[in-house]
Amino acid sequence: MRNKVTIVGAGNVGATAAHWLAAEELADIVLVDIVEGIPQGKALDLLQSMPVEKSDVSITGSNGYEPTAGSDIVVITAGFPRKPGMSRDDLVRANAEIVGKATEEVVKYSPDCILIIVTNPLDAMCEVARRVSGFPRERILGMAGVLDSARFSTFVAMELGVSVENVHTFVLGGHGDQMVPLPRYSTVAGIPIPELLDKAVIDRLVERTAKGGGEIVSLLKAGSAYYAPGRSIMEMAEAILKDKHKILPCAAYLQGEYDLKDLFIGVPCRLGAKGLEKIYEINLTAEEKAALHKSAEAVESLVKALP
Ligand code: APR
Fold first, then answer.
1. Which residues partner with 5 through β-bridges?
2. 63 lines ligand 1 (CB under 6 A)
3. pLDDT value at position 1?
4. pLDDT at residue 85 above 90?
5. How far is the CA of 11 from the centre of ligand 1 (A)?
6. How far is the CA of 13 from the centre of ligand 1 (A)?
7. Atom of ligand 1 nearest to the CA of 38
8. CATH of domain 4-142
9. What is the pLDDT of residue 246?
10. Nearest C-alpha to atom 18 of ligand 1 is from which residue?
């Protein structure tokens, strides 16, 4: 029997994640959205690409949660984008309600699933899912670090003119301007990037990474990034579905690691069939640790704004 993945929110990110998952024949997919016709229509369109793709997964769409029953993974992308005039706190409250309701519904039908939260502000939405689901931390993860690291890797590869396959970067912290890219732990063919690039250049790439989402928003004008977020969701889902024991940067609920407690933030996580298997605590310089704690403060202030 194939695995089953539900994606709540059949918008740009949700549908793109479904596309990647289906193309790789990783799981049967259920798309859920509040708008009538959208999840059904996108699911049918995607399904009709499968004979060409040569993938036998089933893809269905629904406005209700019954068809999601027994999902191995539930990805939550449902939410509002930030609208002009909307404060960050307004967005937190609006999306907390959507993510809270979606979590309540999906855990009813899939009590053993692993939740991958994507809706922004990411780290605070993970906390909503934790409170509502009551799941252990092993089964609640946030997708941000894979995306942020992929952005950093893109810029490093472009700068050096090397294959993206050679580049391995690490970004920790909350998903926002306060994220913490770690050049010391970022390598090109095993060579740490400070050996290959001047500090000024690294600082420029780090800055562009931290503002990576905003750069795309300002180009698209309406909407935010979805190709790289969609592929990053698939990376996490694949590690879980194939029990790969793969280390990826994900938002996880810290319980004292990095001297942080009771909050979600991006850290290196090992993912396998049970979800989060292990959090790696790597040595940080005083400066890196301070940046991580500053990022944690930003997450805490969003969590405080939760209803
Ligand atoms: N239940 C189910 N779906 C909902 C609900 C709800 N209560 N409320 C909104 N949605 C759906 C919308 O109908 C829409 O189809 O969520 C979808 C969101 O899609 P988009 O607006 O296209 O947003 P997208 O670009 O996919 O981003 C989704 O991911 O990366 C984050 O910041 C991003 O928080 C945003 C999320």
1. 29, 73
2. no
3. 76
4. no
5. 5
6. 8
7. 15
8. 3.40.50.720
9. 98
10. 11
Angle at Cα 177 formed by Cα 171 and Cα 181, nearest 5°? 20
The answer to whether residue 86 scores a pLDDT higher than 80 is no
Which is the closest atom of ligand 1 to the Cα of 125?
A: 34
Inter-residue contact 169 to 181 (CB < 8 Å): yes
Q: What residues does each domain of the chain span?
A: 4-142, 145-304
Written as six digits, the tokens of 52 are: 């060409």
Domain spanning 145-304, CATH architecture = Alpha-Beta Complex (3.90)
| Residue 275 in contact with ligand 1 by CB distance below 6 A | no
pLDDT in tens, 131-189: 999 999 999 999 999 999 999 999 999 999 999 999 999 999 988 888 999 999 999 99
pLDDT digits (tens, 9 = 90+) for 34-63: 999 999 999 999 999 999 999 999 999 999
The yes-or-no answer to whether 4-142 and 145-304 have a common fold is: no
What percent helix, strand, coil does the chain show, rounded to 5? 50, 20, 30
CA distance 67 to 12: 21
pLDDT at 87 exceeding the cut of 90: no
Active site (annotated) includes residue 175: yes
* Given 168, 175, 245, 293, the catalytic residue: 175
